[in-house]
Amino acid sequence: MARALPVGLELTSSHWGAWEVRREAGQPTGLAPWRGDPDPNPIGPAMWAAYRSPLRIQRPAVRAGWLERAPDDPRRGEGRGREPFVEVSWERAATLVAGELRRVIDTHGNASVFGGSYGWSSAGRFHHAQSQVHRFLNALGGYVRHVDSYSLGAGRALLPHVVCPVEYLLANAHDWGTVAAHTRLFVSFGGAPEKNARVGAGGASEHGLRAGLAAAARAGCRFVNFSPVRADIEVPDGALEWIPIRPGTDTAVMLALACETVRAGRHDTAFLASHCVGFERWADYLLGRDDGVVKDAEWAAPIAGVPAARLRALAAEMAATRTLVNVAWALQRADHGEQPFWAAIGLASVLGQVGLPGGGFSLAHGPANTMGSRHRLLPGPLLPQGTNAVEAFIPVARVTDMLMSPGGAFDYNGVSRRYPDIRLVYWAGGNPFHHHQDLHRLARAWRRPETVVVHEQVWNAHAKMADIVLPATSTLERDDIGHGTRDALMIAMRRVVEPPGEARDDYAIFADLAQRLGAADAYTEGRDVRGWLAHLYGEAAVRWAKAGVELPEFETFWAAGGVQVPDNPEPVVGFAAFRADPVANALATPSGRIELYSERIAAFGCADCPGHPAWFEPAEWLGSTLAARHPLHLLSDQPHTKLHSQLDHSAYSLANKVAGREPLRLHPLDAAERGIAEGDVVRVFNDRGVCLAGARFDEGLRRGVVVLATGAWWDPESPGDPSSIDRHGNPNTLTRDVGASSLSQGCAAQTCLVEVARFEGEAPEVRAFELPRFVRG
Ligand SMILES: Nc1nc2c(c(=O)[nH]1)N[C@H]1C(S)=C(S)[C@@H](COP(=O)(O)OP(=O)(O)OC[C@H]3O[C@@H](n4cnc5c(=O)[nH]c(N)nc54)[C@H](O)[C@@H]3O)O[C@H]1N2
Ligand SMILES: Nc1nc2c(c(=O)[nH]1)N[C@H]1C(S)=C(S)[C@@H](COP(=O)(O)OP(=O)(O)OC[C@H]3O[C@@H](n4cnc5c(=O)[nH]c(N)nc54)[C@H](O)[C@@H]3O)O[C@H]1N2
Ligand SMILES: [Mo]
What are the backbone dihedrals phi and psi of residue 54, each rounded to the nearest 5 degrees, phi first? Predict the structure, then answer.
């Protein structure tokens, strides 16, 4: 039986943690970390004030130029991001949106509506904005969707062919107790950053990474971190060896570690024979039998900028020790991003420890709180999205390409497809004007659709780039249920405060529109919010019961404020069942085993993703001739003070800015060469754009590498014009908008060269946190 929370505890959930609601004389006054969280996320408490910010959208608003121009006027979209808004009543806004959906669907069909609406939304399981958009558009006959994610574009396409669906990996990473008890060598590529493990989709109520790493170190585990950034993993002094690798070259190192293992005869031939296919083919490549190039330590060392002797010695240590090969997701958010994941799987297979406690590979410990959690896997409430009658889709990061070239061809997962012709874009719960690459290019493509409808909470760049902006509530302003994968709690997220202005729940907005469009029954199924919560909870209770956990009645759950998940009787050991019996527990790959050579991928014939893990020079890297003009590698990692662009306007995020801009971390010697002092405003630029940032020195970077976290609200002087400055420091002003490969078309943001210079003269003021201009309609 799931235990009720202690009486009197009022909790709410966010992607960044669970929070206790503080009250004085019955009135809510703030949020404090849930007392059961051993290591609360410092991002959290500032959300209380941020959700009350003057930047919250108060009323529906429509861009003036959109109201004035007819749908077939080619200039209708040109003013996006530049023209003022007219505030309108809900009645007027809903009439406009419903009318526009009707017109576009009747004239051009459902395949002219793009409703992918990628984004993290908020934590509740019912008011999950992205799911609500999909459900709503499905009720109208469907929409063009996206597949995969920005997080794991290359990984999601690759992994099912060669090992398993991503979901298995996310939900079955060795728990921290297992790592501490068994892993003796933790070889990481891109570390295991504490800042990232602070979040978890849907909820992260018990943060375990810091204690997990410390316990492993205490138990004698050694850590080797290949990363351009030393701080990517924090373990006690003496336990860590930092090998500052050139960005984008990890595959070469992994190939070399595998090659050295095989050459020395230390590979696990029994495991390779019983659990893998294709080893011989891959070994031909590693040993240079097919191309005459032996992928050994001497070969990899000059590519990656790491010592050959250390690679050779490390290969021997890995074979002799319980070793976990850990790979940050950032590595696959890059040109040829499939390769570091596949090479790590290959390396771990050669070592033969996959499925042993604390051994094998992890993809990954670090990117979210889920991986390493000891709690049970109990699928929480989930909003059904309905069925989509439209077949057309895009790989998520191809949105600009789609808008720019209707009918154009693209390859994905072995099939050649065509981009649909999009007339209307509908977005709720994501911020493409923070998350997509090459934002000026997106801004130019964004002029093409006839209409852009956005539900937002705040006046960020995404809202400012829309035609019709509908104000959405936050989690604190509505009833919901919170639960993340392997989380410790399921939370009754009871409404804490009233919504600002006229903000409405996404559900209420869609229910109204569905009513106007004759799809109310399909969308609401006759339920109000509370009816839905009880219904979804009931469905989850059936799934939990099958897993042996009884949930109380909904009303009891709601009154108690949530339940604690009972302890897991078993440690979490990834791939244990497959290791024990690879026939009975065959993988979902074509062979049922780990594929070090994939006939299926080879048959796709992708020149940029052959049948086995291989090294390719990235399109931009420090070893390329392009580095002569733009000699610094820009990494755009996840921000430690917020979740993507969410909460960038919070006091906690603002306190981290340098001269009001997003900090650019750079090595003091790289700064000195450019006459840059700490705290200076700098220009970061390449041919795709230029942004300002505040210089922050970091000796723990490899020379030639600079780091600008994602999430600063985009603040371009002129959206679409690459010579105009983003005054605030969003790295996607600079990143490349080309897919990782023709297999996945995944986001490849980390493949990016730039130059940095001191900003001379008076820097323009940041205007990201200003409201748009309003005029009377
Ligand atoms: N250069 C570079 N770019 C990257 C990455 C990178 O590593 N480098 N990482 C990528 C990755 S992994 C990801 S996941 C993406 C993240 O990109 P997103 O998920 O798009 O980023 P968020 O800022 O979380 O966007 C959520 C938006 O939804 C709004 N919102 C929140 N709750 C609600 C709600 O209930 N209703 C409505 N209507 N709106 C709501 C928020 O105000 C916010 O604007 O960024 C990607 N972009
Ligand atoms: N606080 C906070 N946590 C988050 C998020 C957030 O916005 N804020 N976002 C969440 C989301 S949506 C996701 S998908 C995950 C992403 O999780 P990841 O993709 O793993 O996170 P990143 O911070 O992008 O990258 C991790 C580290 O990889 C290193 N790195 C980058 N390129 C290379 C390379 O070529 N080689 C090597 N060896 N290292 C490299 C960088 O130094 C970086 O610090 O994080 C999640 N966690
Ligand atoms: Mo992500």
Answer: -60, -10
